[in-house]
Amino acid sequence: MSDTQPEWFTAQQIAQRISPDRARRLIRQAILDGFDPSEDPHRIGVPAGAGHVLLMPSTLTQWTGVKVATVSPENAQLGLPRIQATYLLMDTRTLTPTALLDGAALTTLRTPAVSAAVAEDLAPAEAKHLVVFGTGPQAEAHVHAMLAIRPLERVTIVGRSPEKVEHLVAELGQLGPQVVAGTADAVAEAEIVVCATSAAEPLLDGSLVPDGACVIAMGSHEPDRRELDSSLMGRSLVVVEDPAAALREAGDVVMALDDGALAESDLVPLRSLLTGEVARRDDRPNVFKGTGMSWEDLAVAVGVLED
User: Mean pLDDT of all residues in the chain?
Assistant: First the structure.
């Protein structure tokens, strides 16, 4: 047994060692280096208490890792985070634990990194208006991620709590673009829409989304919850990390299939987009439905260690 203890990286250390834009490039590079998300192990969910425990293992060449995440819906009443997590990084050859990372901070970093990696190819090159649904850490992180790849001039925040919307607008007010509170119909004038909520029902009227716009839905990995309606899914180019994973976990996809608005053959793998096999469309909306996959955490975790 090794006497060497794994190095611990706090949320602050993770933020200091790797920028959101570097995280985006690491996600893209994993795909461009030949990794196929269809080869990633399934997310394992185990019921526990009032929530569940998630295990997310993956291997990328010389590195192997696993995130242990817990989802406890009742935690908000206790003043605790709904989702908590720890990440264990190992070298593949010996499987010796090398590092432990704050899993929640890692998730907050890699989720918008995936969105930005996709939007780099899926959003209009001169996108000026971003609409974000949500007021939590993911909503804020997605604004920063999109600012790194597009010349945004206006950011509209949409949320259920006016107080939380006002707070986020104030937090983002010094970034450069105009940041305002808005309503769901703001998507009619948006070039990028990000949905980063825990909603179970569609957040917006999909018929309002313009052709050519990019819509990113990252809020759920459960087959009975969705942020986007079937009409939008049915008239869009739909990109997913991996079709099999989307059919298991993406309610936006599953329910659109059930409604007959979408077919399995319509789903475009992320790898096909990033390698240039499939291109964005100007004559219809471009949707990315992400559920979060194990390889994404690993790609960013390795970047933290090797920075």
Answer: 94
